[in-house]
Each structure stands twice: as structure tokens, then as C-alpha cells.
Amino acid sequence: MRLVVVGAAGRMGRMLIKTIHETPGVMLHAAVEQPQSPFLGQDAGPLAGIPDIGVKVTSDALAAFVDAQGVVDFTRPAATVEFAALAAQARIVHVIGTTGLGTEDSAKIEAAARHATIIRSGNMSLGVNLLAALVKRAARTLGEDFDIEIVEMHHRMKIDAPSGTALLLGEAAAEGRGIALEEHSVRSRDGHTGARISGDIGFATLRGGTVIGDHSVTFAGPSERIELSHKAQDRGLFANGAVRAALWGLGKKPGIYSMADVLGLNDTQ
Description:
The chain is of the alpha/beta class and 269 residues long.
């Protein structure tokens, strides 16, 4: 499968190039960076700590998508929306690991999914998506006697909060409860807040150091507490999941899919 990596010089872009190079059944078709990138024209291999692979970094995304079969995207919302439109024109697979997407961004991505096969997730790892399935099941089983709190920590350079993974877990909890997350989400507490409202789902955000991604979901009930957690120790797990998603999407009908679809977790009750 011929894959394009956008944001090729970023942390995830470099990891994706390396993962694609090492994964049977896929090859790097093109590596895309911003027009002002100092890496333009350089071979993409050394960016990822591997020998030259004969693919030079380019800023011409339109040309890069020609003859490609998929694009893997961990960039920023504005760029991802543009890449989704290009993927729709090319009618290829678009794996989106970008977080911080707003309502308007999502609407544009949904429009692109009329012609592109889009696999979108706040987290591409097997462990996190299994955690989400467990959170959904626990929320359904435990009911409103148990308060739900989600805590996440990431490196100091992360620019959005809560993390896409925290929101993915919050959506899973809300689905388990049969409620809308946006109507029951508490993102901050400061000062005299009053008592906790039953049914709310709380989020707490920590930033510091080089933490790749720690997430925990606490169900706090009468006289007992259940904690489900996941700690990422290597960005390679996200790259592996993204490449797996791209391979899964090859030949699928246009539309929006999730990692739960890729991993066969949507049947979890």
C-alpha cells in the first residue's frame, strides 16, 4: 500500500516514516512538509533515523497524493481539513490522528468522507481503544451512583486540552450512560464550585516534561473506587496503529470509521 506521510518532520511524522519502512505490505509514497520547512528536498529516510529511501520531502501535497492509496495525518486541524479535501479528490484512505478538531473542522471532514475512506481517532493504540470499550461497559453497568473523572497528562509541548484520548474516553463513558458528553462535561473547577452534579463527567489536565500520554478513568462510588488506566511509553504504538488502520481501510467504502471499527471493538456490549 502506497502511503503519504504529512507533517513528515514532526515527532509523529518521523515515527511514521520509520514504521512504514519496517512494515511489510506498505511503502512510503511521499513525505509532505510545510513550504517553509528546512527539510524540503532532503531524503525522508534520515529524518526517521534510517538510511536514504529515495523519497524526498516535498511541500506539494496535491502532487504527493497522485497515485497514492492512503495518507497518514498527525498534523494540526487546519492542515488536516485541507488534506481531507485532497484525499476526497484522490478517493483514497485518510487516517487522522490529529486532535483539537472543532465542530466546523469535523463537518468538513464528514463532507470529505463522501469520497474518501476516513479513519479518525483521538488515539490509535490498541490498548487505549480497548480501554475505551471497558469504560463504556463500566459506565453502563455502574450507573449514576458512580461519579466519573478522567485525568490525563502529556508533555509540556502539547497544545490542546483535554487530549483527544481523554475526550475519546469521555465519549465512551457518555455512550455507556446514554447521555451527550457536551451536556455533562466539566472541564475545570476553580473557587467555590458547589457540590458535584450527579451524572457529570469531569476532566483534569496535567502538562509537563516529556510524558507521551497517561490516561486514567476513575469510577468513584459509595465506599469503593474503580480505576482504569493506560500509559503510553513509546510513540511507536500510535504509528503502528495508524499503519494498521490504513491497511484495514484499503478497499473499504467511503465514510468515517474509528479505531474501534479497525480493531473489531464496536460489538463490545
